[in-house]
Amino acid sequence: MKLKNSIILLAATACITAQAQHINWHNEATDSADINRLLKKAVMISDPQQRVASLAKDFIDLPYVAGTLEAEDERLTVNLDEVDCTTLIDNVVTLAVTAGEHRTSWRDFVYNLERLRYRGGEMKGYPSRLHYISDWIVDNTHRGNFEEVTNRCDLATYEIKTIDFMSANRNLYPALADSATFAKIKEAEIGYRSHRFPIIKTSRVAKAAKTFLRTGDIIALCTGKKGLDVSHMGILFINDKNIPYLLHASSKAGKVILDTTPLDRYLTTNRLTGIRVIRLKE
Fold first, then answer.
1. What pLDDT, in 10s, does the model give residues 35-82?
2. Are residues 152 and 271 in the same domain?
3. 13, 133, 220, 265: which has the fewest Cβ within 10 Å?
C-alpha cells in the first residue's frame, strides 16, 4: 500500500512539474494570486453574460502591451498585468469558463487557457495557436467551449473571404522565418479559403443593440483588409438607452477602457465592416 501511494504521489508531482515547465509566467506570484481572487468572485455569478461583464470590468485601466505571446519558443503565456485586445479576451473568457465550472484555482485557469487558445485544446508549437479569430471560433465552438450567435440575429448577413494574411505577410511574423512553421500555418489556412461567416454589418449594429445584443457579449470586429477576418475584439456593454459600447484594450488610449464612443460610431470611424458575436453557453 505504501508503494502504491508513493507511485501515485510521484505521478501527481510529475504532472504538476510538467504543467509548470510549459508555462511562461509574467509574474507567477501576483498573476496566480489575481487569478484565484477573480475566480472566487466570479464563481458566485451564475449568469454567464453577467460573469463576463463583471470580469471584464476588473481589467479596466490595465496597460495595453502588444505581442506578449510572442517568444522564441511557444509556451503557455500567463499575463494578467498587461494585455492587447486578444489576450484581454483570452483572460476574461478563460476566467468566465473556469468559474462557470465552479473551479477557483489558477491551475484550472491554466488548463482552460490552453484549451481555449490552441487548436484541439493542446499546445503543439506556434502553428497550433489559434491566430485567426475565425479559426478560434470554429475550433472552440466545435469543442463546445462557447457559441457564436451572430447568425441568430435577424439582421445578420454572410461574407465569404479567404483568410491568409499571415502567410501573405510572412515578414511581419518572425516565427514564420522557419520554413516548417510557415508550412504549417499555410496548411491551417487551407481550411479558410473562401470561408463563409456571419456578420452584423456596421450600419445595422445600432438596431441590433435594441433587439439582439447583450451586455457581456464577446465582440469580434470585422475588417475589410485583404486576407484578414477580424482586426479587434472587446466585450459589449449596453446602457439603459440601448446604446452599445465596447470595453477593449485600446492601443490609442494605451490601456483597457470602456469606450465612450458608441460601438456603431467606433466601427464607422475605424472603417470596420461589422461584428461577430460570441456567448458562453448558459
1. 999 999 999 999 999 999 999 999 999 999 999 999 888 999 999 999
2. yes
3. 13
Q: Is residue 229 part of a domain?
A: yes
| Contact (Cβ atoms closer than 8 angstroms) between residue 166 and residue 176 | yes
List of residues 6+ apart from 273 with CB closer than 8 A: 159, 199, 201, 202, 222, 223, 224, 267
Contact of 197 with 223, CB cutoff 8 Å: no
From 142, 166, 194, the end of a domain falls on 142
> Does 124 lie in the same domain as 152?
no
Full DSSP string of 157-221: EEEEE---HHHHTGGG-GGGGSHHHHHHHHHHHHTTTTEEEEEEEGGGHHHHHHHT--TT-EEEE
Read off the C-alpha cell for 214: 447583450
pLDDT for the residue 22: 81
Q: Kindly give the pairing relationship between strand 76-78 and strand 23-25.
A: parallel
Cα–Cα separations (whole angstroms), residue 55 to 75, 97, 253: 25, 11, 20
pLDDT, one tens digit per residue, over 184-215 is 999 999 999 999 999 999 999 999 999 999 99
Q: What length is written for the chain? A: 282
Residue spans of beta strands (DSSP E) within the chain: 23-25, 76-78, 147-148, 157-161, 195-201, 218-222, 230-238, 244-250, 255-258, 274-279
Smallest CA-to-CA distance from 192 within 148, 150, 123, 136 is with: 136
Q: For residue 15, how many C-alpha atoms fall within 13 Å in the half-sphere facing its CB?
A: 8
In this structure, are 97 and 136 located in the same domain?
Answer: yes
Closest CA to 198 of 244, 136, 145, 155: 155
